[in-house]
Amino acid sequence: MVQVFGKKDKSKQPGKTGFVARLRARLNRGDSWLTYDLANLVPGGKIDEDVIDELETRLVMADAGVDTASRVVAGLHKQLARKELKDIDVLMSALRQSLLDMLQPVEQVLKIDSQEGPFVILMVGVNGAGKTTTIGKLARRLLDDGHTVMLAAGDTFRAAAVEQLQVWGERNKVPVVAQQAGADPAAVIFDAYESARSKKIDVLLADTAGRLQNQQGLMDELSKIKRVLQRQCPEAPQEIMLVLDAGLGQNALAQAEKFHAALGLTGITVTKLDGSAKGGILLAIADKLAIPVRFIGIGESADDMQPFVAADYADALLQGSRSATE
Ligand SMILES: Nc1nc2c(ncn2[C@@H]2O[C@H](COP(=O)(O)OP(=O)(O)OP(=O)(O)O)[C@@H](O)[C@H]2O)c(=O)[nH]1
């Protein structure tokens, strides 16, 4: 079955509208750091270079990074020079377009194809990013979409990680393939793949460790898992998904770059956009990495993770639920 996973059909996503409202309310706690009090910075409503510079500074402060921030406003400077930015409304719609131009290319839903055997999603990311929680939320969505799911407890470094996954599996009646702590994760995931194939399971969600003695050790372990899977099926893992904590700001970008260089990521899920994160990191990911952003997370419940929709995200950046410009 080939299926677009998490497609943007609102009628099939009862939580979608509520999610957009929650995103606006939770991103930067409902304030729009980007446009907050901007009207007061434009005396007489006249747009000048200072206003655009202020927007650029705010983007940098919100984790977009210097290069990305300057790319977002580059078009605005040109429009100002052409005297096109007549008032704050025109400026806002030009800024929105600029955000969309950057974000839209990474809005790419995950397509599940299990015709030739299990579709493997290898979940990677450092401990605490929200990997296990994301596996649970993804499994829930897949089950709701009618897929069969199996979990592989590939984080054998921490016994608690295996237990966490087993509890989740029992609660949702999803099989979990696990071995004792310290087992070779590539062997666990190999066994899981064989089991999933013989049971004709649609999707295998493989957890991995987020912390080893050193970073090279972690990357070597993940590369080995990928190699072992590819020997079983050249296309596997069909998705290598990085789970990234938005609260890390620009460090999240550095983290993503390292995982991408070692593994070749095919998707990113950004979690914890409801915390202290300002959310500009999504712009940096789109601009610097161009890796599809599959889902964003704004809380702990299953409904708090939804497919990334660039327009909704740009709107939340521009107008929080308590935005002064609304
Ligand atoms: N506020 C908030 N918390 C989240 C989100 N996603 C996950 N969490 C929480 O973050 C914490 C860490 O999540 P885990 O799923 O255990 O993280 P992990 O990456 O698997 O870490 P280990 O289990 O230590 O490997 C948990 O308390 C989650 O409930 C989110 O989008 N928002």
Automatic annotation (TrEMBL):
GTP binds at residues 125-132, 207-211, 271-274. It holds the Pfam family SRP54. Coiled coil: none annotated. It is a peripheral membrane protein. Residues 292-305 form the SRP54-type proteins GTP-binding domain. Its EC number is 3.6.5.4. The keyword Cell division does not apply. GO terms for molecular function: GTP binding; GTPase activity; signal recognition particle binding. It catalyses: GTP + H2O = GDP + phosphate + H(+). Keywords: Cell membrane, Cytoplasm, GTP-binding, Hydrolase, Membrane, Nucleotide-binding, Receptor. InterPro entries: AAA+_ATPase, P-loop_NTPase, Signal_recog_particl_SRP54_hlx, SR_rcpt_FtsY, SRP/SRP_N, SRP54_GTPase_dom, SRP54_N_sf. GO terms for biological process: SRP-dependent cotranslational protein targeting to membrane. It is found in: Cell membrane; Cytoplasm. This is Signal recognition particle receptor FtsY.
